[in-house]
Amino acid sequence: MIQGIIYANIEKCVIILKMAKKKQIQQIGFEQHKRRRKKKQLVKVLVAEISMVLAVAVIVVIALLSTMGFFVSSDGNIEQSGLIQIHSLPTGASVEIDGDTLFFRTNVSRTLPSGDHYIRLSREGYDTWEKNVTMYPGILIRLYYPRLFLQDRKTEKVAQIDAELAFYSASNDRTSALYAEVGAVEWHFLNLEGDEVRSADLDLSEILPGIEEGKFMGEVKTLKWSGDGDHALIQIQHDSEKEWILLNLKDLKNSLNLTKVFGMNFDEVLIADGAANRLFVLENHHVRRINTDDQAISRVLLNDVLSINNSGSNLIYTSVTTKDSLDKAQHVGVYRDGDKGGTTIATVPMGDRLLVAISSYYDNNYLTLVVNDEMTIYYGKLPVYNEKESADKNILENFTVLVENQKLAVTPERLNTSPGGEYIVARKEKQFMVVDAETGALHEYEAPTESLNWLDDSMVYAVLDNELKVWDFDGTNQRVVVSRKKAVADTENAQTLAKQPVMITNNNKWLYYLTRAEKGYSILREQIRD
Predict the structure, then answer these.
(1) Exposed end of the chain (fewer CB within 10 Å): N or C?
(2) pLDDT band at residue 9, thresholds of 50, 70 and 90?
(3) Which domain holds residue 120?
């Protein structure tokens, strides 16, 4: 009996041990399963995180590429578009690109594939503007200049001039005009900055040379405005003499007869700053600087100079070597105000026709050289003068070549720049060759006239056949803005358009022009935008 009890207990123990072992095995299996499950979950989380990061990276890359103008073309290739910014004067014009009208109105920005695109701007009550534009990959094109003219405008008379005009001139900042009748010592100044025209009579009897018996017997040969419109630099010829006058339009007492003050006959005088405090003068092939505040003239800054051209305080000049008559050459140099001398940037054989110009645009200096019928344009910062610099050092190494040895349609006779410095214009007779400093594109066309008259920073005008015609710098958008043909035909004493300066005021609201009748002139204006 005792033995049976022992066997029973042993059996129970074995069962208990088996159950414990089984439970242990189950526990171990559960822990292993749990660990495997945890690993799987961790892998899933890592995969999800990596996928999310990759998705965000792809989205960022796609957004970045899209911002840079990249897109997938219809044939599956990745291409880059350009960005065009379209402004208009006035704003609020409808924009049509390649026949499709945009939802937004000017001013607006839009990416466009590379290639040619047709752009048309229109606004109710105004004329239209249109142009074909070539886009390039990754390039920004700014169309800031399109101007629309209000139709059905009313004409207002500003002033009546009952005599022959000696001259009429509009200021560069498009705020003022100055004019005088033939023989008058009293000149007239018009402030056209706002809606109200203000006039002032200027008695120049103590300032002008060539006055005889109360009449001005001289002739105004040149008139240049200071940037602020407060000064006029005038070259006057009387008899065989030429004198330069700096006329202070705000305070006549502070006007200067430069020729008499300094006792020199200046061949050329240039305004070097906006307020005409500094001037560059060319006299007997010497360049000097005048400080008008203290009426001081500098030492000779440059020698053997033939011509000077400036953009503010920076000069470009041409000179000729005279030491060796067998080795004469034309030199092109640049000078920064304050330097001890100039720096030669190019040498041209004596027999070649040479034209030079300097302008500023977006903080860069643009140097233009036309040799015979080839144009080269550099842009960058003017080199600092260094008298120890070796002659073979490339002083243009910090410049970028915008146009290099560009063959022109004809050999130009004149070289000019636009008021804002963005356009360089070479011309001969009616053949205009215009380079856009922003893109480097050359536009060649035949203009309606030989004259180059800027209506604003980008638009050119001419008074022809009793019509005022305007067009963009590249010859496009030619329009007749004012016409007097019908008036002349209908009215016996109608006034015809005078070939005097035309001006759009700096608020882009008023168009000023002159008409002529048998007994004199009328200064008229029209409101060209709401």
Answers:
(1) N
(2) low
(3) 90-143
